[in-house]
Model the fold of this input.
Amino acid sequence: MAHVESHRTTLSNGLRVVVCPDHGSPNVTVDVMYHVGSFDERAHRTGLAHLFEHLMFDNTTTGVDKQYDTLCTKAGGSNNAYTTYDYTNYYINLPAHQAELGFWLEAERMKGFMITDHALETQRSVVIEEINQNVNNTPYGRWRFAQQAAAFDVRSSYSWEIYGSTEHVASVSMDDARDFFDRYYAPKNAVLCVAGDITPEQAYLYAERHFGGISSRREEVARNGFDESWKLRGGHVVQTDAVTIPAVFISFHIPGDRLMAPQAGEVLATLLGSGRTSALYRSMVVDQRIASSVGAYLDRRDHATLLTLYAFATTPVIEPAALAASMLTTAVECSPTEASTMAAANKLATSTAMELQKNSGVADAVAWHTIFKDDPAYVNTLVDRYRSVTTESVDTLLRTYVVSENSVRVDVVPE
Done:
């Protein structure tokens, strides 16, 4: 894998700027990652971080609606954004000669709160429709809401899903939005990462020109706390839905990113539920023929990660209890070998290396590691970290955390 070159500076307002020059193609990604997600919300105002992701496309000092998308498209670029539990990311891909446009557009978002009543009303409706379409009116769409509530105490802001409550989103006021902006959309709570065909000197010039005059606003960024005692175990939720066959989701608590590197957990998830060679597929789909679809994935978070296994029954008569028992037995009896561990690790290492061949992948990964590890160069260790995962480390993770008393279970059954 090619080495990711990175250069770092910090503006006087606290904005961290990281430049990753790569002159292989005449393109640039301008990425701004804010250290705010649904974890930073309040229990009575969930969904605000995701709503804000939508609102920020209308947050321009010119007051022109949809300015961001219009100017980006005219310049031959593309853009997007996404919200997680712990951070929100915005990025724009542009031809290299249009790079300064990306700096200006992202700075427009950060300069000040310019949301209009019309924009707030419109985006509240858009987000509510998105929740209805992707969650409430989609088969098996609501199980994650049940999972969060079963896995975390109500005192934890991991106890609700990123989308949040439609009622809460509908009631967000202009004062709520303005306070959220002032609290979290400040330079010192963000990282600007630029990757592609640009020199550090040129990027620093653009960064200072467009971001340097933005007020640092609040001195400190308020953070919600997390306590290990807020992890709940042993919960079992049965959720009815407009589905034809049952499905079961079992999640296990493992340490979050700040306490444990995720590579061994991702290898374990791959061994358990990724592809036709995985333990769950061989056992439940091929041998027992009780599941039509199975899988496993690592739901990474800063404070508390969940390893989730799932299975969809082959027929309506198969009971969720049978699916759950088979999943647990298969997981417990899984025996990682040197060969299977190496294959899973190489698969993940290759995927990571491919992502780091793209400007957008570099910018995203470097911004994340700057925020959460204060180390832009950490990305150069990722591939080796996967390939260094040992059979013993995966087996220890499996035996320590993948046990029924450390799990929560959600059954989705036909209405």
Remarks:
- The longest strand covers residues 304-313.
